[in-house]
Amino acid sequence: MEPWLSNPMYSLSPKTYNFHFQNLPFAYGRNNTYICCEVEKRKNNSPKSYYKGVFRNQGYPEEPLHAEQCFLSWFDDKCLSPRVDYNVTWYMSWSPCLECAEEVVSFLEEHENVSLTISVSRLYNCDDEDQQRGLQLLHEAGAQVAMMSPEDFEYCWDTFVDNRGRSFWYWKGIRRNYYALDEKLREILCRG
After folding, report:
1. Average per-residue pLDDT in the chain?
2. 77-111 burial, b if ≥16 CB within 10 A, otherwise e?
Protein backbone atom coordinates (compact mmCIF):
# COMPACT_ATOMS: atom_id res chain seq x y z
CA MET A 1 0.00 0.00 0.00
CA GLU A 2 1.16 3.55 -0.65
CA PRO A 3 1.73 5.60 2.48
CA TRP A 4 -1.02 7.79 3.85
CA LEU A 5 0.20 11.35 4.19
CA SER A 6 -1.22 12.60 7.44
CA ASN A 7 -3.03 11.34 10.44
CA PRO A 8 -6.78 11.16 10.01
CA MET A 9 -8.73 14.11 11.36
CA TYR A 10 -10.80 13.74 14.51
CA SER A 11 -13.62 15.99 13.36
CA LEU A 12 -14.92 18.35 10.69
CA SER A 13 -15.94 21.96 11.11
CA PRO A 14 -19.70 22.59 10.81
CA LYS A 15 -19.11 24.67 7.67
CA THR A 16 -17.08 21.91 5.98
CA TYR A 17 -19.63 19.24 6.94
CA ASN A 18 -22.65 21.23 5.76
CA PHE A 19 -20.97 22.14 2.46
CA HIS A 20 -19.53 18.75 1.57
CA PHE A 21 -22.22 16.42 2.90
CA GLN A 22 -25.37 18.21 1.74
CA ASN A 23 -27.26 15.70 -0.43
CA LEU A 24 -27.99 18.07 -3.30
CA PRO A 25 -29.08 16.71 -6.70
CA PHE A 26 -26.35 18.84 -8.33
CA ALA A 27 -23.42 19.59 -6.01
CA TYR A 28 -21.15 22.07 -7.74
CA GLY A 29 -17.74 22.90 -6.31
CA ARG A 30 -17.54 19.88 -4.06
CA ASN A 31 -14.28 18.40 -5.33
CA ASN A 32 -13.19 16.73 -2.10
CA THR A 33 -14.44 13.44 -0.77
CA TYR A 34 -14.69 12.97 2.98
CA ILE A 35 -15.11 9.69 4.83
CA CYS A 36 -16.38 9.76 8.39
CA CYS A 37 -15.39 6.30 9.56
CA GLU A 38 -15.97 3.97 12.46
CA VAL A 39 -13.97 0.83 13.08
CA GLU A 40 -15.20 -1.85 15.46
CA LYS A 41 -13.37 -4.98 16.53
CA ARG A 42 -15.56 -8.09 16.86
CA LYS A 43 -14.83 -10.62 19.57
CA ASN A 44 -17.27 -13.42 20.34
CA ASN A 45 -19.86 -11.73 18.06
CA SER A 46 -19.72 -8.64 20.28
CA PRO A 47 -18.51 -5.45 18.53
CA LYS A 48 -16.31 -3.03 20.46
CA SER A 49 -15.63 0.50 19.24
CA TYR A 50 -11.99 0.83 18.19
CA TYR A 51 -11.62 4.06 16.19
CA LYS A 52 -13.63 7.02 14.88
CA GLY A 53 -12.22 9.67 12.56
CA VAL A 54 -12.33 11.49 9.23
CA PHE A 55 -10.35 11.00 6.03
CA ARG A 56 -10.29 13.12 2.89
CA ASN A 57 -8.56 12.92 -0.46
CA GLN A 58 -5.01 14.30 -0.41
CA GLY A 59 -2.39 15.56 -2.79
CA TYR A 60 0.57 13.25 -3.24
CA PRO A 61 3.82 13.99 -5.08
CA GLU A 62 3.13 11.70 -8.03
CA GLU A 63 -0.62 11.30 -7.97
CA PRO A 64 -3.47 12.41 -5.69
CA LEU A 65 -4.85 9.86 -3.24
CA HIS A 66 -8.60 9.49 -2.91
CA ALA A 67 -10.13 9.32 0.56
CA GLU A 68 -10.78 5.59 0.17
CA GLN A 69 -7.12 4.97 -0.66
CA CYS A 70 -6.02 7.04 2.35
CA PHE A 71 -8.28 5.03 4.67
CA LEU A 72 -7.22 1.65 3.29
CA SER A 73 -3.54 2.52 3.57
CA TRP A 74 -3.95 3.81 7.13
CA PHE A 75 -6.10 0.84 8.18
CA ASP A 76 -3.70 -1.69 6.65
CA ASP A 77 -0.66 -0.02 8.26
CA LYS A 78 -2.07 0.90 11.68
CA CYS A 79 -4.96 -1.40 12.57
CA LEU A 80 -5.33 -4.57 10.57
CA SER A 81 -4.60 -7.89 12.22
CA PRO A 82 -5.45 -11.25 10.60
CA ARG A 83 -6.59 -12.56 14.00
CA VAL A 84 -9.29 -9.92 14.55
CA ASP A 85 -12.63 -9.42 12.81
CA TYR A 86 -13.58 -5.83 11.96
CA ASN A 87 -16.78 -3.94 11.17
CA VAL A 88 -15.94 -0.79 9.22
CA THR A 89 -18.55 1.89 8.54
CA TRP A 90 -18.00 4.75 6.11
CA TYR A 91 -20.23 7.80 5.82
CA MET A 92 -19.06 9.40 2.57
CA SER A 93 -19.69 12.76 0.94
CA TRP A 94 -19.46 11.09 -2.51
CA SER A 95 -19.84 7.46 -3.54
CA PRO A 96 -16.58 5.78 -4.60
CA CYS A 97 -15.39 6.12 -8.18
CA LEU A 98 -14.84 2.93 -10.22
CA GLU A 99 -11.08 2.87 -9.51
CA CYS A 100 -11.57 3.17 -5.76
CA ALA A 101 -14.42 0.66 -5.79
CA GLU A 102 -12.11 -1.86 -7.48
CA GLU A 103 -9.41 -1.22 -4.86
CA VAL A 104 -11.90 -1.64 -2.02
CA VAL A 105 -13.22 -4.87 -3.55
CA SER A 106 -9.67 -6.20 -3.86
CA PHE A 107 -8.99 -5.24 -0.23
CA LEU A 108 -12.15 -7.01 0.97
CA GLU A 109 -11.26 -10.13 -1.02
CA GLU A 110 -7.80 -10.20 0.58
CA HIS A 111 -9.15 -9.54 4.08
CA GLU A 112 -12.21 -11.69 4.73
CA ASN A 113 -12.11 -10.58 8.38
CA VAL A 114 -13.27 -7.10 7.38
CA SER A 115 -16.92 -6.22 6.72
CA LEU A 116 -17.75 -2.84 5.21
CA THR A 117 -20.87 -0.70 5.30
CA ILE A 118 -20.90 2.39 3.07
CA SER A 119 -23.50 5.15 3.35
CA VAL A 120 -23.10 8.01 0.89
CA SER A 121 -24.49 11.52 0.72
CA ARG A 122 -24.37 11.76 -3.09
CA LEU A 123 -23.77 9.44 -6.05
CA TYR A 124 -20.62 10.26 -8.00
CA ASN A 125 -21.34 10.63 -11.74
CA CYS A 126 -24.35 8.36 -11.30
CA ASP A 127 -25.35 8.33 -14.98
CA ASP A 128 -21.93 7.03 -16.05
CA GLU A 129 -22.01 3.24 -16.56
CA ASP A 130 -18.45 2.80 -15.25
CA GLN A 131 -19.31 4.53 -11.99
CA GLN A 132 -22.49 2.46 -11.71
CA ARG A 133 -20.40 -0.68 -12.21
CA GLY A 134 -18.17 0.34 -9.30
CA LEU A 135 -21.17 0.45 -6.98
CA GLN A 136 -22.35 -2.90 -8.29
CA LEU A 137 -18.91 -4.45 -7.68
CA LEU A 138 -18.91 -3.24 -4.09
CA HIS A 139 -22.38 -4.68 -3.54
CA GLU A 140 -21.41 -8.01 -5.16
CA ALA A 141 -18.30 -8.19 -2.92
CA GLY A 142 -20.52 -8.06 0.17
CA ALA A 143 -20.20 -4.40 1.09
CA GLN A 144 -23.48 -2.89 2.22
CA VAL A 145 -24.05 0.20 0.08
CA ALA A 146 -26.78 2.71 0.94
CA MET A 147 -27.66 6.39 0.79
CA MET A 148 -27.29 8.44 3.95
CA SER A 149 -30.69 9.00 5.52
CA PRO A 150 -31.56 12.24 7.31
CA GLU A 151 -30.93 10.39 10.56
CA ASP A 152 -27.44 9.39 9.31
CA PHE A 153 -26.65 13.06 8.65
CA GLU A 154 -27.68 13.91 12.20
CA TYR A 155 -25.62 11.02 13.60
CA CYS A 156 -22.54 12.22 11.68
CA TRP A 157 -23.12 15.77 12.93
CA ASP A 158 -23.21 14.51 16.51
CA THR A 159 -20.25 12.12 16.09
CA PHE A 160 -17.80 13.64 13.59
CA VAL A 161 -18.42 17.41 13.64
CA ASP A 162 -16.95 19.89 16.12
CA ASN A 163 -20.46 21.26 16.61
CA ARG A 164 -19.84 22.84 20.06
CA GLY A 165 -23.11 21.48 21.38
CA ARG A 166 -25.27 22.85 18.57
CA SER A 167 -28.06 20.63 17.26
CA PHE A 168 -28.20 19.49 13.66
CA TRP A 169 -30.55 21.44 11.41
CA TYR A 170 -32.13 19.52 8.54
CA TRP A 171 -31.61 21.49 5.33
CA LYS A 172 -34.36 22.09 2.82
CA GLY A 173 -35.00 19.00 0.68
CA ILE A 174 -32.92 16.60 2.79
CA ARG A 175 -35.62 13.90 2.92
CA ARG A 176 -36.86 14.43 -0.67
CA ASN A 177 -33.27 14.24 -1.97
CA TYR A 178 -32.64 11.12 0.11
CA TYR A 179 -35.65 9.33 -1.40
CA ALA A 180 -34.69 10.29 -4.97
CA LEU A 181 -31.05 9.23 -4.52
CA ASP A 182 -32.04 6.03 -2.73
CA GLU A 183 -34.31 5.08 -5.64
CA LYS A 184 -31.47 5.76 -8.11
CA LEU A 185 -29.02 3.65 -6.08
CA ARG A 186 -31.51 0.77 -5.87
CA GLU A 187 -31.93 0.85 -9.66
CA ILE A 188 -28.15 0.76 -10.13
CA LEU A 189 -27.66 -2.14 -7.71
CA CYS A 190 -30.55 -4.15 -9.19
CA ARG A 191 -28.96 -3.98 -12.65
CA GLY A 192 -25.70 -5.48 -11.33
Report:
1. 92
2. eeebeeeeebbbbbbbbbbbbbebbbbbbebbeeb
